């Protein structure tokens, strides 16, 4: 297959296995983001794809070719690092073209490619400057240009925006998105930033402790988490979790935490098979609904964010966060009534953490 495929990839250091039997297919043209907390193995996985770290077991295939034992420059990939690694004494033009020169490419072809990349990244006026004369965002464009000029089939990015301030990160996300749409090449991108993952990816791989937790579209990772780890890691504020069980309240189905019963609306029919079973209810702040039919709760704190506000509540023996529009006024210590949109909640097994029912 075209794209990238990992088959039973294992990595061990000094006999300690940190990743085991990783299987992953990255389709040609995908923008796949490896997402997870620090130390989860995402950079290790990227470095094995790049050939910067050897695999302990398994194989890596790029465009149908087994590259497991090949050097990085034999894999038809280009990598952009967190540090820009630009040569300080060289101009932007020479930095971008240096790799091609080392490969023995003709001067005319190098100049042509550098000019094309300069135009694509809108850095043509900067080509004769030195790196010290560039902003952080401009240096990042040069680092990306150095990868683009090689015309590889796969681009690898290792947290490339982490050294930029918030405004530049937002700008560069837009640039990377446009670049992918124009080139249509396969991109494998490492980040711990959820916003980057959600805005850039066509597919997200969530990793934890060296294991793949979920591979899916950004929307499904957010709306249909495979387990409690994914649900808690993706999203800010994090998903609310309440332990208890589903039970009947007359004709209605409610969630009984043992300290109170949380009303549910829009309850899916398949939920009835889970009534009485111990479980964990997961509901994101926007899935909590302020309604007079809800359970009484005490407002602990309201945090305005501009277009919305997040309200921290003490309810049914738990502290939960609900999202509301800015027009409602919540005072600490006041009463608010809350319920859960059952069509959008996720139910988890309390032991394994695996999703039983998702939105």
What would a concise description of this structure say?
The protein has 359 residues and is α+β, with helices and mostly antiparallel strands. The protein has eight helices and 20 strands. The protein is 23% helix and 37% strand.
Fold and architecture overview:
This protein is of the alpha+beta class. Helices cover 23% and strands 37% of the residues. It has 8 helices and 20 strands. It has helices at residues 42-50, 92-102, 107-120, 136-148, 166-183, 194-200, 218-223, 228-233; strands spanning 3-13, 16-27, 31-35, 57-62, 65-66, 77-80, 154-158, 186-191, 203-208, 211-216, 240-249, 252-256, 261-265, 278-283, 288-304, 309-315, 318-324, 335-341, 346-348, 355-357. Strands 17-16-15-18-13-12-11-14-19-20 form a 10-stranded mixed beta sheet. It has a 6-stranded mixed beta sheet with strand order 6-7-8-3-9-10, sandwiched between helices. A hairpin with a 6-residue loop joins β19 and β20. α2 packs across α3 and α2 (92-102) runs parallel beside α4. The radius of gyration is 25 Å and the shape is elongated. The mean pLDDT is 94.
Main sheet? 10 strands, mixed
Tally of individual helices: 8
Mean pLDDT, as a whole number? Answer: 94
The tally of strands reads: 20
Task: Tell me which oligomeric state these chains represent.
Answer: single chain
Provide the helix percentage.
10-25%
What is the CA-CA span between the terminal residues? 32 Å
